[in-house]
Structure formats: structure tokens, C-alpha cells
Design goal:
The protein is an alpha/beta fold and 319 residues long. The chain is globular, with a radius of gyration of 20 Å.
Length: 319
């Protein structure tokens, strides 16, 4: 049974397009966003609302307790189980999200346990962390693996150190590891990857509008609730853009207007990093989301590309 993947930068319209595709293809949407997996974080992660889901089954949204450690390997285990369940119902799994690492886990044969660092290396990195601090270790990662460093916050020390472990243990940056892994398309299940993109100024305008909407919907109250949970603010689950700008504001470190500008600026930078990541993947079929007058036209363009790929995809579209 096949699966469909829909990727692209934040705020480009992936969630709505996934729902529209699901209605056309008897599909169910599976989350592929590393922040939307956590409960409590609905507004700031832009998790789809019930109205936005529009009756289409959605999976792996808000299923992981906030404050829990959740790795890409754990995501793959849950996502594969969900995919099998959806396929057993003779429905099409439509993976939707902007986390490039999750896409790699689902479309490459990746052995997460195969790269291990010696205890001496771990101790050395921990000692350097104590001496240099979070920013110093992040700069070290930037020097050897800028692609990974750009998508990790300096306070996400667990992942920063893990990326450094991989580099020093193998001599290859973590961001390059997937390139040598086996594509799963022929060996495990057929899949297609579509990417949505749009002109930069329009995307940035949509990002700004989304941030304003999040604040109107209650992002500050959501963050106040999270603060009361007592989770350390450096925990990876709290590293999402929006949250890590609101928390300092709530502590009085800067003004409301500065907080808003920081969220918008960091979200724009994140969108740029996402496109840098996805542009390296030649398997993605890109569709200009701003090139269509209606949502149906966009979906029909994706369907037309699917039909050109093989009889399997053509039959699926014609059901």
C-alpha cells in the first residue's frame, strides 16, 4: 500500500491541502511536525483545530505528553504503526508537516542505534559544555555541521551534543547521514513526496498574519499554563518558535512589541531553513501554492502529477 508525503515551509498551506487531498483520495492525515506531536501546545504549534480537520481523521497530533523526551526513532515507530493501521482500512496515509528529519525517517532506511559515541567522547563533550556553555557548543556544531546547527536552538543541548557525537564518531555531519541510506520506495512501500512553496514575500506575509492570529487566539495564556507545569524551559519540547520568545516576555525581559517581532523574525528564518533542507531532496515534486486561484486547482495539479507516475497512482486517483 502506498503513502503520500506533503512538506514545505511553515504557513504555506500544508494542513489545508492535506485535508483536501484526503477528501479526494480516501485519505487520513498523519502528523509530521515535531512540535505538533505534543499535547498542551496547540496554538503555538499551529496544530489543526477540529474545524480545520473538517471531518478527516488526523493522527499523532497532541499525543505526546509535554515535557517528555521524544526522539525521531520513537516518531518512526509510532508513525509506521499508524500508517499500517490506515492502510489496513484501505485508506491512504497522507503525512503532513515541515520536519525534515521525520521525512527522512519515513523514507530512508535509517538505523538510529547504529551510530554510537564512546563514553570518553561523551565525557569530553559534557566537559566542554560546562566550560563553553550552550552558545559555545552551538558555535562548535555550526563549524562542522551548519545545516544541523541552523535548525537547533543553542539551548537544545541534548540534540546539539548528539549531533557533535555523530560528527566526531563518524567524520560525517548528521545532516549528511541520510544521503547514504537506502531509499525505501521500491523495497518497502511506494510513496510520493510533494512540496508546497510560494513567493517569499507572500510567505512572509502569511507568517506575520499567522503570528498575529496565534496571539489573538490565546498564545500567551497557553504559555502561562505551560509555565505552571514546571517543565525546565531548556527542555527540547519547549524549544518551538513562539514559545521560547513568549516565556522571556512573561518574565518581563522585553516588551510585547519586541516579543511579537522576535516571533515573526524567527519564524521567517525557520521557513528559510526548512526550504534549505527540503531543496536538497531531489525526490520532492514541487508545486507553487500561490500559482492557483482556488484550493481545488492546487489539489488537481497534485493529482495530475500523481497520475503521471504509475498505474498504481493513476488508479488511486481515479477511484
Amino acid at each position: 500500500m502506498p503513502a503520500l508525503f506533503l512538506v514545505g515551509p511553515t504557513a504555506c498551506g500544508k494542513s489545508k491541502t492535506a485535508v483536501n487531498l484526503a477528501k479526494k483520495l480516501s485519505g487520513e492525515v498523519v502528523n509530521m511536525d515535531s512540535m505538533q506531536v505534543y499535547n498542551t501546545m496547540r496554538i503555538g504549534s499551529a496544530r489543526p483545530t477540529e474545524d480545520e480537520m473538517d471531518g478527516v481523521p488526523h493522527h499523532l497530533f497532541g499525543t505526546v505528553p509535554l515535557g517528555s523526551d521524544f526522539s525521531a526513532a520513537e516518531y518512526k515507530t509510532m508513525a509506521c504503526k499508524t500508517m499500517e493501521e490506515v492502510q489496513a482500512r484501505h485508506h491512504l496515509p497522507i503525512f503532513c508537516g515541515g520536519t525534515g528529519l521525520y521525512l527522512q525517517t519515513m523514507t530512508y532506511r535509517m538505523e538510529f542505534g547504529g551510530i554510537s559515541a564512546s563514553e570518553d567522547l561523551r565525557k569530553e563533550l559534557q566537559a566542554r559544555l560546562t566550560a563553553l556553555g550552550n552558545e559555545g557548543m552551538h558555535r562548535e556544531l555550526m563549524a562542522v555541521d551548519p545545516a544541523t546547527a541552523e535548525r537547533l536552538h543553542p539551548n537544545d543541548t541534548k540534540r546539539v551534543l548528539r549531533a557533535l557525537e555523530v560528527y566526531y564518531a563518524t567524520g560525517t555531519p548528521l545532516s549528511e547521514q541520510g544521503r547514504g541510506f537506502t531509499n525505501l520506495e521500491e523495497e518497502d512501500y511506494p510513496f510520493l513526496i510533494f512540496g508546497l512553496r510560494m513567493e517569499r514575500s507572500l510567505l512572509y506575509e502569511r507568517i506575520n498574519t499567522r503570528v498575529d492570529a496565534m496571539l489573538s487566539e490565546g498564545l500567551l495564556a497557553e504559555c502561562e499554563t505551560i509555565l505552571k507545569m514546571g517543565i525546565p524551559l531548556e527542555h527540547p519540547s519547549l524549544m518551538g518558535i513562539g514559545y521560547r520568545q513568549v516565556f522571556p516576555y512573561l518574565k518581563g525581559e522585553y516588551s510585547y512589541d519586541e516579543m511579537v517581532e522576535r516571533i515573526k523574525r524567527e519564524t521567517r528564518r525557520y521557513a528559510k531553513r526548512q526550504m534549505t533542507w527540503f531543496n536538497r531532496d531531489a525526490r520532492i515534486h514541487w508545486v507553487d501554492a500561490d500559482g492557483f486561484s482556488t484550493a481545488d486547482d492546487l489539489v488537481n495539479r497534485i493529482l495530475s502529477i500523481m497520475k503521471e507516475k504509475s498505474d498504481l497512482w493513476r488508479d488511486l486517483c481515479d477511484q
